[in-house]
Design a protein that fits this description.
The protein is an alpha/beta fold. It folds into 2 domains: 143 residues, 3-Layer(aba) Sandwich (Rossmann fold), CATH 3.40.50.300; 239 residues, Winged helix-like DNA-binding domain superfamily/Winged helix DNA-binding domain (Arc Repressor Mutant, subunit A, Orthogonal Bundle), CATH 1.10.10. 39% of the residues lie in helices and 14% in strands. The protein is built from 13 helices and 12 strands. Strands 2-3-4-1-5 form a 5-stranded parallel sheet. Helix 4 links the parallel strand 3 and strand 4. Helix 3 packs parallel to helix 4, helix 8 crosses helix 12 and helix 10 packs across helix 11.
Amino acid sequence: MEAFYKTHEYLLLHTEAPVRRALMDEIDWNDRLIGIKGTRGVGKTTFLIQYAQEKFRYDRSCLYVNMNNFYFQGKSLVEFAEEFIRRGGKVLLVDQVFKIPNWSHQLRECYDRFPTLKIVFTGTSVMRLKEENPELNGIAKPYNLRGLSFREYLNLMTGNNFRSYTLEEILTDHEQIARTILPKVSPNAFFQNYLHHGFYPFFLDKRNFAENLLKTMNAMIEVDILIVQQMELKYLAKIKKLLYLLAVNGPTAPNVSKLAAAINTSRATVMNYIKYLADARLINMVYNPGETFPKKPAKIMLHNTNLVYSIYPVKVEEQDVLETFLANSLWKDHTVSKGTKGLSFIVDDKLQFRVCTEGFRKKTKADVYYVMQKRELGRGNEIPLWLFGFLY
């Protein structure tokens, strides 16, 4: 146990969170079982350590443990929690919980047996706490940690502390909001760098970002999807090829029959693989308004713009990148559906959006929001694209 305390203390001293994540203030920390889901590379471990730094800096009642530790091949999480409580433990931060056998059962047993213990655990975005782990339904409170928003990236790069805004605030008051930001910084001076490498916090590491992202993407498939979905290793090449084909085809409706033939599998399996890739936050499935899985998506997009530049950089279309940014920014709190002719998206089944590249000159319609590429200050229903990066 002392070895875990030493690791915990070392991490508290040597972990520097690049930016304080907005999720820290959205979580109800009074709950006894809290799950932090998120794609690999978005900073879940750092988030746990940041929580311990803020609330339990010199307090041994809080302990961080990583389920990658071989110690847990010989002792269960339940046994460890029991010993932790005997030593005065109250808050257990469990990283990568899905790495241990029967993890949901062990969490449930801890919850039932130790009413004085709070557990905050992290897991891959592929985990479905409610659908596939009914024993945690109603007791585990799940949250999603996303990659850096443009606002968080801008705060990090400039030292500012801009707040986030709701979609309603941006749509109704974007001119005034922009006027509070522009005197302090020029967002467009940082926007292209964010699109290329700003979503994943590890861009700060002194390593080649593109190579690092490719390794992370492979780990999402090789580790997260295979372990959680209990897929056999022989199917790994098929799901990787499917991701590549979806990226090469660009944001369009998938031809499931052609994809099935290309990876030598059934149409039903292709749809399951597409769902796994979406759960892993590698792609987004965009549906017509009112439709959802298991129907075929109206369009498949890569999850964020960093992936666009990494998976198939020789074919980067500017319009696709801009629409990917808008969809990903909106996805946290809103439904994003495929737009009808002349529109990019319909949001929350009613709001109409069109993303416009530089030089857009067509006649505008009053009931459409025009999202302008390089505009720093908007007017009326023409809103700067960068400002949607302030939604979280």
